[in-house]
Design brief:
The protein has 3 domains: 312 residues, Rossmann fold (3-Layer(aba) Sandwich), CATH 3.40.50; 122 residues, Jelly Rolls (Sandwich), CATH 2.60.120; 66 residues, Immunoglobulin-like (Sandwich), CATH 2.60.40. Helix content is 17%, strand content 31%. The protein is elongated. Helix 7 packs across helix 8. Strand 14 and strand 15 form a beta hairpin. The chain is α+β, with helices and mostly antiparallel strands.
């Protein structure tokens, strides 16, 4: 039974947007220019909007009813009964499926083509209107929408731990069973803690702000999986209420894009979550950091939403693991891994190239078993599968792999590796796990490459020359080649850089020589 302490509160700040131009910051304009007529709009993707009320609807209505401007052409279903107009719901709805894709016109969305919307009042949603914790022998209702957006928060304390965990388990159960993306907001204000409802659930995608003015983890000590950092992703708005449905709209266009490309697996909510996380950018956050056991930044999670990157991962297509040849620079897989086994995805960085950034995520759902106990449907969490993700260099001489980065948390249902300025060479992403039954995961990766051309300079001293190369990569192997005619070249020096500038003194010679620096695959 839910207690009053669990009733959610509206996210604050209904003020007009002071946010950055989200359509450019989050890659929407780049994607639209790249795809042209194939640009998805969310058409054919049903969504759900969960709002605190009463009232809770974006416009007044009852039953199933037609929308009017700015929702002309949409069909709403009032899942929690008749309601009047809610300004908060109207604004979140516009960011999820409104008419505007540009801030200059109105509250922007990425998915103006969405036409079917189920609307829930949050208190009813938490109780018998969807999750049904008080209904005898009843699992949560089936969610037919592909994206569910929750712009509200609820706090609890240790006295209501049982009810809180029942709610988050039921939501995790529904997300896994019904295969949808659920975006939820954390609270506004950097001094607030991560809300227990519903951001503390495992299978949601929790959303914060690029400004960092949002609550952040760890999850509370009395909820399942205490200590997990939230949020997982951020967007450039002035309130999490608006950022949350905007991330949901990005999920909707990825869902439609998966349908365009006839990829059943890419349409899975778990895969879409992986695409969004691996596509997120970190350049906005100079202090962004993770560790081997903490896969997210303590404030900004995976980084800022970037739909151009996420779509590029999706379009890179699903890749089978354990193949001898390198996989594409941007791609993904949905795979089932048995206990004590591994799955490898090889990636190659050609000589003369640098991987300016490599970002990879694996995500999997927490599974919950619905146990009928004493006439009550009682969700019981299964032991959390402990997947790990590693990035290893495969040396060209056939020697043992060299660890570059790893993510080995035991409390999250995601892992993340991230590196900048990787030298040329062959690498692998390895997914591994411990004991337990076979489980599905989604992996998504994105590698950005650029030519690697250190800038040369030379100082002459008589017949001797001192060559300086600025921008060499530590741990990268190089050869210096010499030629007298720029036709025939010979190796005169080889080295492994240990700094960003490398100096070499050429031997004295009475003849003219040309020199070049050549990076060698590791």
């Amino acid at each position: 039974m839910l207690r009053h302490a669990l009733i959610p509160a509206l996210l604050l700040r209904l003020t007009p947007g002071l946010f950055a131009a989200a359509e450019s910051d989050c890659g929407f304009l780049r994607l639209k220019a790249a795809l042209g007529p194939a640009m998805p709009t969310g058409a054919g993707v049903p969504v759900s909007l969960v709002e605190v009320g009463p009232p809770y609807l974006p416009q007044s209505g009852t039953g199933t009813f037609a929308g009017n401007a700015p929702f002309a052409g949409r069909t709403f279903t009032a899942k929690s009964g008749t309601s009047g107009f809610s300004g908060h719901a109207n604004r979140t709805a516009q960011h999820l499926f409104g008419s505007f894709t540009s801030e200059a016109s109105g509250p922007p969305t990425m998915a103006p083509g969405i036409t079917l919307i189920d609307c829930y009042e949050a208190n009813a949603f938490l109780e018998d209107g969807f999750l049904r914790p008080t209904a005898l022998n009843a699992a949560p209702l089936t969610e037919n929408s592909r994206v569910q957006s929750c712009s509200w928060v609820g706090s609890a304390d240790a006295n209501s731990a049982a009810g809180t965990n029942d709610v988050v388990r039921r939501l995790d159960f529904a997300i896994h069973r019904d295969n949808y993306l659920c975006t939820v907001g954390v609270n506004n204000g950097s001094g607030n803690r991560t809300p227990e409802l519903v951001a503390s659930a495992y299978n949601v995608l929790s959303v914060g702000l690029t400004s960092g003015n949002h609550s952040r983890g760890p999850t509370s000590s009395f909820v399942d999986g205490p200590g997990r950092l939230k949020p997982e992703i951020v967007a450039p708005f002035d309130a999490t209420s608006w950022a949350t449905p905007y991330v949901g709209s990005a999920g909707a266009i990825l869902r439609q894009r998966a349908t365009q490309l006839s990829s059943v697996n890419a349409a899975r909510g778990l895969c879409i979550k992986a695409f969004l996380l691996a596509g997120a950018t970190k350049s906005e956050f100079p202090g962004w950091s993770k560790s081997n056991t903490v896969p997210l930044d303590s404030i900004f999670g995976a980084g800022e939403l970037e739909i151009f990157n996420s779509e590029a991962i999706l379009s890179g297509s699903e890749q089978l693991p354990n193949q001898a040849s390198p996989r594409p620079d941007k791609a993904w897989d949905y795979h089932t891994l048995a206990a004590s086994t591994t799955a490898d995805y090889r990636i190659s960085i050609p000589p003369g190239t640098i991987a300016t950034e490599l970002s990879a995520f694996i995500v999997w759902n927490r599974t919950v078993t619905g146990v009928v106990s004493g006439g009550m449907f009682a969700p019981s969490p299964d032991p959390l599968v402990d997947f790990n993700l590693a990035l290893d260099l495969l040396p060209s001489d056939g020697s043992a792999p060299v660890s570059v980065d790893q993510s080995t948390s035991s409390i999250y249902n995601l892992e993340h590796v991230w590196k900048k300025n990787l030298p040329a060479g062959n690498y692998r992403l390895r997914v591994s796990r411990g004991t337990g039954v076979s489980r599905d995961y989604a992996i998504a990766w994105r590698m950005e490459s650029a030519p690697h051309v250190p800038a040369p300079s030379m100082n002459l001293a008589g017949d001797s020359a001192q060559l300086s190369f600025h921008g060499t990569l530590p741990s990268q192997r190089y050869e210096i080649h010499a030629s007298s005619d720029m036709v025939s070249w010979s190796t005169v020096h080889s080295f492994t850089a240990n700094a960003s500038t490398t100096i070499w003194n050429a031997p004295a010679s009475s003849r003219r020589h040309f020199y070049r620096l050549v990076p060698i695959s590791l």
